[in-house]
Design a protein that fits this description.
163 residues, alpha+beta, two-stranded parallel ribbon, 24% helix, 23% strand
Length: 163
């Protein structure tokens, strides 16, 4: 029973600001979780219909835009990747949907500094190695004997906005 209760709290709770101002708290809010998480079919879809607002010690679900009669009320449970939504809320990813919060992870090993421009086995000229090293260091990869891990948003609009 305790595992079920813990799983229920983890999957059906919302993060709210503490009234004392001492961080965040998880809260179960009756009926709020009947609204589905919004995931668009394409980048041109209308955004979610509602959002959670905290004010004066109250939590309200309010319309973010005009809502058509019969339209499903949706909101963003979390600005999270498909993997995080699955783990946190048990929301299964839908292949036909576009999650603008997904990311692509990339790992570069130190050997990338020594890769020939044509990916052959030839060792590149030292000037090229030095230029690569300097460029990577300029962008924050200073421990070049360790792998560099970073992620890129899969959403073209977000990627271009962060470039």
């Amino acid at each position: 029973l305790s595992n079920w209760a813990l799983a229920t709290v983890a999957m059906r709770s919302f993060t709210l600001s503490c009234a004392s101002g001492n961080g965040d708290a998880l809260a179960l809010i009756p009926f709020l979780d009947v609204l589905n998480h919004w995931t668009p079919n394409s980048y041109d879809d209308l955004p979610w219909a509602c959002c959670l607002e905290e004010a004066d010690g109250e939590v309200r679900m309010v319309a973010d835009r005009d809502i058509s009669a019969g339209e499903e009320l949706t909101h963003v449970y979390s600005e999270a990747s498909d993997a995080r939504l699955l783990c946190q809320y048990a929301i299964l990813p839908v292949a036909s949907r576009v999650n603008i919060f997904n990311e692509a992870a990339i790992v570069l090993g130190p050997s990338v500094l020594h890769t020939a421009h044509d990916c052959s086995q030839a060792e590149p000229h030292q000037d090229l190695i030095d230029a690569r090293s300097e460029a990577f260091a300029h962008h924050g990869w200073v421990a070049q004997d360790q792998p560099l891990f970073f992620s890129l948003p899969t959403d073209k609009k977000t990627l271009l906005a962060t470039a």
